[in-house]
Amino acid sequence: MYNNFVMLWADTKTASIFTFLLALGTLFYPWFFGIACLMLTAYILTLLLWTIYQRRKSKKWGLKIIYLIPCEYWLINWLAKRKGISIPQAQGTVWEMHLNTKKSYPGDCQKVREQFQKDLEQDLRIIKQLKENKQLGMLPVITLNTFNRYWLAKTKEILGGVTHEGVVLTDISCNMYRPQKHLRNIQKNVSQL
Q1: 100: which residues sit within 8 A by CB, 6+ positions away?
Q2: How far is CA 159 from CA 82, 96, 138, in A?
Q3: Per residue in 128-144, is it b (16+ CB within 10 Å) or e — as a string?
Q4: What pTM does this model have?
Q5: Do 58 and 70 contact (CB within 8 A), yes or no?
Q6: Is the sign of the CA dihedral 127, 133, 135, 140 positive or negative?
Q7: Which of 89, 101, 116, 190 lies deepest, with the highest CB count within 10 Å?
Q8: What is the chain's percent helix, strand, coil content, to nearest 5?
Q9: What SS3 class is residue 137?
Q10: Structure-model confidence comparison of residues 109 and 67, the more confident one
Q11: pLDDT single digits (tens) 43-54
Q12: CA 108 and chain centroid, separation
């Protein structure tokens, strides 16, 4: 899931209190609070559908293992400022790069690694082309949060940019991706593990 307004507040005390009050209100005033619950559910559903749409759009652009998700500038800027990082004002869109964890590579580890690296480099070249052709906006900002040093190095080499230490994600995004989940994703991607 990409950085968004719901992810920003989902893992906070404020969200817990809001959820409790919404549930309590639904018991006493089901008509009013039931509509609020439906509206919140519809909003969250549109976020999921938006992600699916952007994944398909990335696939149409020819991306194999990376997909691009547009992000609100104010949110990514706020998250970056918490880590002391300045995001330039985008005259287009702020795009987040994500790894397609549904992509799998059969075969031995060495061949899988080489194919992954080849696909990653090809995707970065496609993103560079999209950027140069202004398909991502006039002056887009492309962000990447990863622990994958190869991806980070290749992104810098092909797309340019600046590397910052620290994770610029919503708290819930960090909490969702524990080492066990990363291992499951890697095992899903590489069938021989």
Answers
A1: 55, 63, 64, 65, 66, 67
A2: 25, 13, 15
A3: eebbeeeebbeebbbbb
A4: 0.74
A5: no
A6: positive
A7: 116
A8: 60, 10, 30
A9: strand
A10: 67
A11: 888 888 888 898
A12: 29
